[in-house]
Amino acid sequence: MADVEVEVDCPHCGGRINLGTNASGAFDCPLCNEQFEWNSDAPSFLDILFEMGFWIGALAPFLLACSVIVLGLMIAGDGWGFLAWALVSVVLWPVVSLAIGLYGYVAARVPLMFGGLVSLAVSIGFYLLFWAVVAVSNL
Fold it and tell me: pTM here?
């Protein structure tokens, strides 16, 4: 990675400050002696939660699976045809969640990655709960 000279405006006094090469972290302004952060690498949990990428990663696979079920009801109605659409939906949710999580990891988009992984965890939990209900109802 090439060394990049970083110059920023102080958020307190507005003065132009040279932070050095590849700067990140907490700095003291030499003009007003106030402290500020620049290019902080570690996002907080709330930063991730309020990013749009998190919600796209978390909700897109679920909404896609729900759309497949609705489409199956509209096309096949009830019976074996709908069962096939429901099976596609059951497989689609965790697969798309995992794909979004992996894409977020590869593209270094942390909120998108966490959203995909949360959706994957919710889908697995949903399926375990479903099978537990089926097992208990057959006793």
Answer: 0.62
